[in-house]
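ok new one. same drill as before - structure tokens go in, u give me an amino acid for every spot. 562 of them this time. try not to just spam alanines like last time pls lmao
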């Protein structure tokens, strides 16, 4: 019988039950039954992660529900408690005198992850972790509460997208002004929330013996193979090679449209003819995707059919639903779930193929022997998602109106290239924020303006007060909820663009290489997975040069000096 999401039911854990189960692991270790202990430890973690994922998903599906919020708060209160047990068991196994036996039972990469994990938690920061989760949830609920009036409609922030991409310039400007009105109205609250988050995180780092939160954050992200200096070099690669190309793309757009100046509300209109839109609404797009994945061959089509028929998709935008998109999973059943907010723009195709890449990877690696390996670290996970965006290019005739597939492909490539400067801008901003946690809100806003001048020198808000004063970063939820995550998109995009280049030469080989990467899941760190896929590491000097040249040729744009 096919698995159905509506039938999933994960037992609600209690502190007493968790203590009992983790205690059984310790007892098995006392009895030198290491294999049994590891099996039980893995089972407990899968059970807890499945329940926790469902709890977070339910809250995201309806942030206005008191029951959902209460369950989310309960999960937040349990997380430090569970982490304490997990860290204690990991530490015990890492300190086991018989390391040969431990090494035989666990992969070297799992052990390296555990060595990192045990440096990120101590009971002294348990309350701080709960507070961090609570504040992050407060941000999510505040953003989801937006009710914006435009075009005779009341929409949430996701619902602004069609207006923001309108071919009518006045409509785009209105959407921009309406958007930033909401953030200006809530600016003080957003500043206060972020200030509390920064200090909670800085205090956690101090309690654990770190000089600053940045080092702790990298460990929380399980980055075992590179550090801030490597990322800083990558940011400069983007600034050197990508920023000039994006400037030329935008200048061509300005000249084509006959605008005296290109403003921030002009940037979302990537195609002067109007951004190609999905071929239909939610139901049509979901059905067309089935044809697309069937066409691509292998098990992509059958897997997607399982998700669609089993109810593992929630793609429609609605009131009270959290913004954005994500993929989560339930490791006890080996099935992922895709959450998104369709709004009738090209974004629907982008987010859908992106999250489908995450889902497919998680499903392909569901048989790996330990819960730690089911997902890669997020830098590698984003390769799986972004690469699938490009690998679906040959089938875009199914997803957009007749004759618009090539326009969509060009728009998608331009959007991807334009993202890189913004992605490193967010990352550099966060590095400076946590190096100087006592900045005032005004100083943080001025810092963002400085970062925009460095990485987005074309950005002109046309006098709209809030973003012109440096408030644009408040709309980027990752800065609040997932510090230092955002660079993962940029690192992964550097790799995904290499899949794009490979697919232009041999689509079948590119798809085979992609499937093999998905199957590896999280069995190795980021740089090893990149190497195993035959890709150039983003940390390699000049990693973006050939990609930029290929993209410029594809878009028929001359690079500086050519």
């Amino acid at each position: 019988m096919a698995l159905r999401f509506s039938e999933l039911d994960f037992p609600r854990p209690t502190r007493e039950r968790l203590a009992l189960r983790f205690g059984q692991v310790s007892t098995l270790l006392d009895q030198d039954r290491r294999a049994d202990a590891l099996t039980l430890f893995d089972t407990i973690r899968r059970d807890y992660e499945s329940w926790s994922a469902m709890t977070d998903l339910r809250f995201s599906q309806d942030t206005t529900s008191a029951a959902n919020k209460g369950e989310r708060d309960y999960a937040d209160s349990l997380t430090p408690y569970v982490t304490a047990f997990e860290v204690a068991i990991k530490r015990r196994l890492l300190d086991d005198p018989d390391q040969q036996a431990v090494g035989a039972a666990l992969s070297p990469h799992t052990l390296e992850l555990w060595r990192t994990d045990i440096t990120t938690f101590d009971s002294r920061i348990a309350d701080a972790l709960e507070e961090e989760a609570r504040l992050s949830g407060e941000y999510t609920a505040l953003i989801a509460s937006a009710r914006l009036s435009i075009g005779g409609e009341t929409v949430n922030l996701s619902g602004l997208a069609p207006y923001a991409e309108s071919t009518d310039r006045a409509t785009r400007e209105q959407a921009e002004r309406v958007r930033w009105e909401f953030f200006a109205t809530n600016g003080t609250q957003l500043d206060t929330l972020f200030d509390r988050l920064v200090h909670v995180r800085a205090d956690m780092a101090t309690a654990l013996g770190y000089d600053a939160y940045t080092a702790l954050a990298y460990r929380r992200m399980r980055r075992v193979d590179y550090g801030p200096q490597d990322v800083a070099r990558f940011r400069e690669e983007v600034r050197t090679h990508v920023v000039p190309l994006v400037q030329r793309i935008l200048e061509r757009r300005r000249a084509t449209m006959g605008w005296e100046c290109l403003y921030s509300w002009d940037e979302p209109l990537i195609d002067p003819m109007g951004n190609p839109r999905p071929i239909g609404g939610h139901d049509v797009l979901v059905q067309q995707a089935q044809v697309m994945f069937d066409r691509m061959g292998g098990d992509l089509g059958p897997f997607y059919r399982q998700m669609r028929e089993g109810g593992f998709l929630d793609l429609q935008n609605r009131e009270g639903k959290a913004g954005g998109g994500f993929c989560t999973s339930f490791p006890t059943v080996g099935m992922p779930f895709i959450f998104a907010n369709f709004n009738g723009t090209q974004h629907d195709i982008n987010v859908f193929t992106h999250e489908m890449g995450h889902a497919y990877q998680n499903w392909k690696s569901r048989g790996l022997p330990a819960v730690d390996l089911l997902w890669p670290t997020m830098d590698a996970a984003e390769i799986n998602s972004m690469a699938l965006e490009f690998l679906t290019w040959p089938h875009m005739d199914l997803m957009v109106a007749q004759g618009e597939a090539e326009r969509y492909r060009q728009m998608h490539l331009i959007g991807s290239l334009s993202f890189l400067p913004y992605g490193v801008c967010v990352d550099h901003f966060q590095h400076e924020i946590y190096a100087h946690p006592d900045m005032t809100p005004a100083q943080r806003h001025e810092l963002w303006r400085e970062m925009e001048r460095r990485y987005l020198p074309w950005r002109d808000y046309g006098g709209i007060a809030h973003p012109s004063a440096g408030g644009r970063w408040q709309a980027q939820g990752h800065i609040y909820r997932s510090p230092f995550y955002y660079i993962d998109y940029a690192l992964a995009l550097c790799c995904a663009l290499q899949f794009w280049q490979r697919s232009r030469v041999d689509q079948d080989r590119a798809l085979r290489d992609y499937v093999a990467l998905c199957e590896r899941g999280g069995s190795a760190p980021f740089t090893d997975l990149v190497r195993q896929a035959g890709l150039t590491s983003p940390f390699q000097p000049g990693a973006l040069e050939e990609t930029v040249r290929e993209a410029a040729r594809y878009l028929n744009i001359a690079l500086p000096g050519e």
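The chain has 23 helices and five strands. and btw The domain at 5-132 is CATH 1.20.140 (Butyryl-CoA Dehydrogenase, subunit A; domain 3).
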